[in-house]
Design a protein that fits this description.
single chain, 202 residues, alpha+beta, two-stranded antiparallel ribbon, 6 strands
Length: 202
């Protein structure tokens, strides 16, 4: 079904979840260095209370999956359409996993950067996942004009959304996601990081 982080070869998603619970994970940015050590928000590059990463699932789930994705990547679309529904039904909806989405726009995908900013602008209004689905369901039609069309369709405040997207204010947040992925050794998408006991920071 998938290969897990750091060359864990798993035949089933349950293997991935079971394996990660036996492994001590650390954050290479030193946000957390000990298993079960609480993470202070001031240790993070971006305070989640100001700009939260989009997430699904219980904050108390024993495992957090951090997905690094690219809205123009065909393999990310395959993950979205084939694998994510299984993770949601078997793990997220049952309280076993929390999923956090981060942007990793690849340079050879010309619409990936602006699509990532689109998702972040939607996230400001609490509708990231609705835009996430629009972007993947219409992956062959990515363009700024369509981003604005889809924003209207999902009920965003258009004045706020247009200002957010046109100003490029989310560019630095997308870059922060990208750099955090690079620090974990990520070079392609989709990439999944597994974190124990929801020890997650930036």
């Amino acid at each position: 079904n998938s290969a897990c982080v750091e060359n864990w070869e798993c035949s089933e998603w349950s293997d991935c979840i079971d394996n990660v619970q036996k492994r001590v994970c650390t954050d290479r940015n030193s946000c957390a260095t000990e298993l079960n050590k609480p993470i202070e928000k001031q240790d993070c590059k971006i305070d989640e209370s100001i700009y939260p990463d989009p997430a699904k699932g219980s904050i108390s789930a024993p495992v957090t999956i951090i997905e690094y994705g690219d809205f123009q990547c065909p393999f990310c679309h395959r993950f979205y359409s084939q694998t994510l529904p299984l993770i949601e039904s078997n793990y997220i909806n049952t309280g076993k996993v929390r999923l956090i989405y981060k942007n990793f726009p690849l340079s050879f995908h010309p619409e990936a950067q602006k699509a990532a900013e689109t998702g972040d602008c939607a996230n400001q209004q609490g509708k990231f996942w609705q835009m996430h689905d629009k972007l993947f369901n219409n992956q062959q039609d990515l363009s700024v004009s369509n981003y604005k069309k889809w924003a209207k369709e999902i009920g965003l405040d258009m004045e706020e959304f247009n200002e957010c997207l046109d100003s490029g204010k989310m560019e630095r947040y997308v870059l922060n996601d990208f750099n955090s992925g690079k620090s974990q050794g990520i070079v392609g998408t989709p990439a999944l990081l597994f974190v124990l006991d929801s020890l997650y920071c930036c």
